[in-house]
Structures are given as C-alpha cells and as structure tokens.
Amino acid sequence: MAKFKYKARTKEGELQVGTVEAASRDGAVGLLRGHELFVLFIEEEGKGRWYESAFGFLNRVRIKDMMVFTRQFAAILSAKVPLTDSLVTLRKQTSNPILRDTLMDVSRDVDAGLSLSQALEKYPQVFSIFYVNMIRAAELTGRVEESVNFLADYLEKEQSLETKIKNSLTYPVIMIMLFFGLAGFMATVVFPKIEPIFLEAGVDLPFITSFLIGASKFISAWWWALAIAFAALAVLAVDYFKTPEGKAVLDEVFLRVPVVGDLMKKVYIARFTQSISILVKGGISIPQAVEVAGYTIGSATYRELLHKAAENIRQGENLSQAFAKSEAYFPPLVSQMTAIGEETGRLEDILDKISRFYTREAEDMVSNLVELIQPLMMVVIGVFVGILFASILIPIFELAQRL
Question: Are residues 273 and 352 in the same domain?
C-alpha cells in the first residue's frame, strides 16, 4: 500500500485536502470518486525524485508528433467515432514508437473503464499536465472535441515557435561552441607558454590577462572537484525544483524576470481564460470552473491565485473583482473585459476573446524575441572574443615597446 496526497472538491464545492492509502494511483482516485469527490490533484508521497526521472527525456515525444496526433484525434472525434475505436485508429497511424505504445496502453485503460484523462495522466512523459487537465475539464462538460481542437491549435503554435527558435539559434550555438573551443585552447596551450615570457621581461599583465591565466591554472588543477561540485548542485537543484515548494519558487522567479515574465503571463492568461470559457459553456459553476482552470495551466503561482479567486467568488464577489485584486498577474484589461462579460451575460464568449487576444500577443512577442536573439547573441560573442584577444595583444604590445 502507498500513501497519496490529494486535493478534491465535494459536490457542494467544499475543498478537502489529505492523504489516502491505496495499492495504486488509480485505486486512490477510484476511492475518492467513490466518496463523490472531484479530484483536483493527487500524487504519491515521496514520488517524483530526480533519480526516477533523470532519464525521462529519453521517453519524451516531440511536439510535432503530439501536434499531428492531436489534430488527427480532433478530426476523428468530429466524425463521431467511438473513443476506443478512435484510439485504435490513431495508434495504427502513429509513426512514433513511444507514442504508439502509449496509445495502446491508453486504449486498454479506457476499455477497462478509466476515463480518457485518467488513462492519459498515467504517462506524464508523453502527455503534459496542461494537456491532461484540459481533457479532464472537457470531460466534465462533454466538450472533449472542442477541447482537443484547442489543444491541436495550441500545439501547432508551439511547434511553429519551437522551429523558429531552433532556426534562429543554430548559427549562434555553433559560434558559441567555437568560442569555447578557442578559449579552452588558449587557456591550456597559449597562456601557459606566454606567461613566463612576460614575467621575465617585467611586463605588468593587465587584470583581464591575469584573471584568465589564474582561471586556467585553477581549472587545470581542480577540474575534477569542479565537475563533482557541479554534478552535486545539479542533482540537488533538480530534486528541489520537483517539489511543490521548488516548483512554486521557480515559477515565481520566471514571472518576475523582465520580458520572460511578461511572456509567461500572457501564455498563462490565454490558457486559463480558454479553460474557464469551455467549462462555463458546459454548465460548470463559475467558482468551480475557475479552480479547475487553475490546475490546467501548469503554473503554481496562478493556481494559487485562481484558488483564492474561486474562494472569493463563493463569498459573493464577481470574477472581475477577484481579478482586479491582483493586477500584477491579471492586467486591467482582463478584469475590465470580464466585467463586461458579467454585465452582458456573455462571460464565456468574452473569456474566449481574451484568450485569443493574449494568444496573439504571446505569439507576436515570441516572434520579436526570436528576431532579436541572433543579432544579440552575436554581439555578446563578439565582445567576449574581443576580450579574449585583448588579453594577449595588450601584453604583447607593451612587450614590443620595451624591446
């Protein structure tokens, strides 16, 4: 038996937090559902440490494969093909072996009585938290087809942006590798040979030259200790950032970084407004829709903010008022547009428009950043190369003046 931490809601909307013992995760979920609880979050205690997922990247599926699968899934669902038959068809059409094997297991789980979201969440290395929770939210409303279409569009945009970023980084990455190769050659071969010449001639080495020579000596002597220290810090960091506290800290740090934070906020706003829109259209109450949406976007900070917003709504506030309390995370436009939706009785449509607006904003912002990455990195590399050569040329120039 294992212990599982969980958060769940009763039919009346009351939040319950605790632990439950079960032989498996599915058993724990089934036990909670048997008590008429809607499970928001469940995780095995002590699970998720670094050594369990250190090589998880080997089992990941490319965004392109996920995008093609999701688009095909949406097309099959629109044809009203039964879910189990859809999964069998998709498995046959999938070329990625990892995804194909996963779909076979998902199909078996669905045949055994699990919901689609329950079956998908057993494979976090393939289906992200955002993906699974969007499906779970759609199952509550019967709008799975609409949700899958949204996911397909979302993954298409993600794949397009990933391609742009890779293309823009290819040349700078090659230049960075060449720079480090050159720096390593000079630190291990050139500097040790020219230092005695300068010392014998009584040339005062500039700070940058002294620093680079000292750094090369230190690295040559203690490279093994540096490697061990780096590996230990990496293990501790990965282990910490997989904990709930670590995820929250990392998420908050990213949201506070200039430019990157603005981009992440736009992405998160687009995600949760789309999710709330789908849930409200399906007849889910606004406070429950807001809280469920918090678990779909993949941000610990926004999950907590939306949880507080849901509690405030249960106490009589409007959604727009709840948003207005945290303008640092919900821009005034969000609360103002939401207020219009509440006044006109078209909240779900307005939220959908907000999602589309911030999706376009995020796409434009990423496109601009991608165009700036290459020239900016080339300038940075040029500065470092100049410093590297100056550390040799300045002492040589002083030596030539003395001769």
Answer: yes
To the nearest 10 degrees (0 to 180), the angle between helices 300-314 and 260-281 is 40
Among 111, 127, 156, the domain boundary falls at 156
Q: Which residues pair with 16 in a beta bridge?
A: 8
Domain final position from 122, 156, 190: 156
144 neighbors 138 (Cβ within 8 angstroms): yes
User: How many helices (DSSP H) and strands (DSSP E) are in the chain?
Assistant: 17, 3
The angle, 0 to 180 degrees and rounded to 10, between the axes of the packed helices 129-141 and 260-281 is: 20
Contacts 24+ apart (CB under 8 A), 251-258: 251/299, 251/300, 251/301, 252/300, 252/301, 255/299, 255/301, 255/329
Q: What is the pTM of this model?
A: 0.66
Q: Which amino acid would we find at residue 79?
A: A
Cα-based torsion angle of the residue sequence 40, 37, 119, 265 in order, rounded to the nearest 10 degrees = -20
> Do 274 and 311 share a domain, yes or no?
yes
Question: Of 388, 342, 345, nearest to 185 (Cα)?
Answer: 388
The CATH code of the domain that includes 123 is 1.20.81.30
- Contacts of residue 147, defined as CB under 8 A and 6 or more positions apart, other chains included, come to 134, 135, 137, 138, 278
pLDDT tens digit sequence for 249-285 = 888 888 898 888 898 899 899 888 888 887 787 677 8
Which domain covers residue 92, as residue numbers?
A: 62-156
Confidence (pLDDT) at 403 = 61
Q: Give the containing element (helix H, strand E) for 365.
A: helix 347-402
User: Position of tokens 């669905």?
Assistant: 110
